[in-house]
Please model this.
Amino acid sequence: MVDTVKNGTGLIRIAAGWLLGLMLAVTAAVITISVVNANYFGPQQPVRDYFQALHDGDGAKALGLLKPTTPTANPAVLDGRGLSSAAAHLSDLRVGDPQPEDGGNVKVTASYNVDGAQKSTNFQLEPAGKQWLFFSTWSFIPAPLPTLDVSVVNETTASLNGVTVRMPAGRNRFAVLYPGQYEAAFANDLFQAPAVSTTVTSPAVRVPAVDLATAPSAKLMNAVNDQLQQYLDGCAKQQVLLPADCPLSNHSDNRIVSPVLWNIVSYPKVNISAYGGAWVIAPLTVKAQVSYQEQQLYTGEVSQVKQAEDFGFTAKLDTTGSKVTVTPVVDY
Model:
């Protein structure tokens, strides 16, 4: 009888031990599921995955996660270098705790720096069922993609985040993922526009248009100045009062008894600007001095003439590829 009681007590102790172990295992499982659910399957994880896709330049994954409504716009920077360059300026990412909203949805705020400036973006997510029975999944609530309008003066291409993009009639609209920094610029041998950057943080905030102010490059200005100087030097070599096809001129009612010598005192200051879809040179002014000796017809007296004055003319500019042609125009 004693042995039976002892055996019963032992069995109870064993059963209690197993029960305690089972309860601890269940508790550990619940805790593990909760931790995994919060850290790997919670609404913050899709946000982290989305930011990683931006940094990787993986537009397909980023768009697949975001599921946005797509605008009618050029997709040139939604993938690859254009996308990864936009995200390269983001640093110190901090994904906040989910905040409850109506209908079981949540808001997750991501904070980050853009070139030292503190910015943030709000993401709305909704429940998307369970995975493996225990783990919650979440998906972004679709929102429209922002667009960026870019214009460039007198050009049909530009650069956006290092990607060459088409600019029909000097304009285009681009769909962009957010957050990110987008830099537009233009440069070739003859013309260039300073880079303009804009930061896109939300689909709800209108992105300011980017206008690229194209201007002549130093190479173009040097080429135009060189051609004009060669032209005017050629005019100055003509030892006549009215050099042919030149703006220089002088008049005398007396007899010229010495060579006519022209000297360019100052060459024109060149100003090139956009007009009517082309590049035009503003009216030019050259200052030149003429010197010669003349003999009075009635008295026979010989005198020295030395006179400097300004002469105006225009010039046409043609740029084909990297070739520059300046054609002076003289009206008599």
The chain has a mean pLDDT of 89. The radius of gyration is 39 Å.
